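Ligand-bound model needed. zinc ion.
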Amino acid sequence: MVKGMLSKREETFFLSGFIDETFEFSALLPSQGGQLKLNFQAVLGISSLGLRHLIDLLATLENKSVAFFECPRLFVELFNHMPQVYGGRRHARRIVSCYAPYCCPACSLSVDVLVPLESVRFDCHELIVPSAKCHICRSAMNFIGDPMEYFLFTYG
Ligand SMILES: [Zn+2]
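Prediction:
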């Protein structure tokens, strides 16, 4: 198992590996104002205790500006089941972008595509997800699954 690691580039904290209770969550407490930017792209997993520490951290940051970038699918499932993972339903807009499963009907490529959540919207009671282009054959790819279920955290 790859141990959880934290690095910082410019103003964003990048989390990676397997996050458990030994992860240095305290390093994420901002010393001053400003937005806490977290990038989860390289996170491979999170233990129950790691999750509790993340939830506790967000509770202490209740009135602060926090932004979640590039959340992998495992985080999307957590967001849908436990809104506390991003600080509660009223903070759904903290999630800036996430990965979603797409498939190419032409060449069958299956890939997780990064979706900016500002591009996910309702139209006539239907949740519209952005299109994506296959990087192998340039065809238009389709989101796999039910957008209403996958993106529940954006409106539920
Ligand atoms: Zn293709």
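The chain has two domains: 1-95, 101-156.
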